[in-house]
Amino acid sequence: MQAEVRMVRSSLDWDSRLRIAIGAARGIAHIHAQIGGKLIHGNIKASNIFLNSQGYGCISDIGLATLMNPISPSAMRIAGYRAPEVIDNRKATHASDVYNFGVLLFELLTGKSPANTRSEEVVNLVRWVNSVVREEWTAEVFDVELLRYPNIEEEMVEMLQIGLACAARIPDHRPKMRDVVRKVEEIPRVNTGNGPSN
């Protein structure tokens, strides 16, 4: 039985978060490689990531959202995930899927939702992470629950850099998903194995 990913900070250690990122990246890259590169997910978000028996993230909801839900595609997207260039799901691209994956990485690193509401103010996670990094307060980005694990700071920074590249404002500046998979798998602590990802 697969479990939906929820940002329950106390139950997700660093290795678990890495496995979620690796599996989800592999799944998105697999989707992008199908039908001659013409397939796009268009709705990558935490509630569409499930865990397999090995704890790797698995992508769900490919193509079903628009078929099963009478709500307009743009209304289905959760605030904070939409790439800046996407007006609605019909305009989704590989680059917008990569952006969504960057937001997912930020969630895994910060333990925060993509659009936090604090005192009637919506805080966009991508903008917040970028502003903190720009001010060189990078340590402030990371979930305090992660700070209790020794010797992972370098790996968290590596994942943060991947997330920043994925969530670049200009679509052409974002990496291809196959390159993202390689970079996430290079983060050293996790034995990536060949766990299923799709």
TrEMBL record:
Query: What InterPro entries has UniProt attached to this entry?
Result: At_inactive_RLKs, Kinase-like_dom_sf, Prot_kinase_dom, Ser-Thr/Tyr_kinase_cat_dom, Tyr_kinase_cat_dom
GO molecular-function term, one example from the UniProt record:
ATP binding
Q: SUPFAM superfamilies given for it?
A: Protein kinase-like (PK-like)
Q: Describe the location of the Protein kinase domain by residue ranges.
A: 1-190
Q: Which domain of life is it from?
A: Eukaryota
Looking up PANTHER family in the UniProt record yields: OS05G0588300 PROTEIN, PROTEIN KINASE DOMAIN-CONTAINING PROTEIN
Q: What is this protein called?
A: Protein kinase domain-containing protein
Which organism's genome codes for this protein?
Lupinus albus
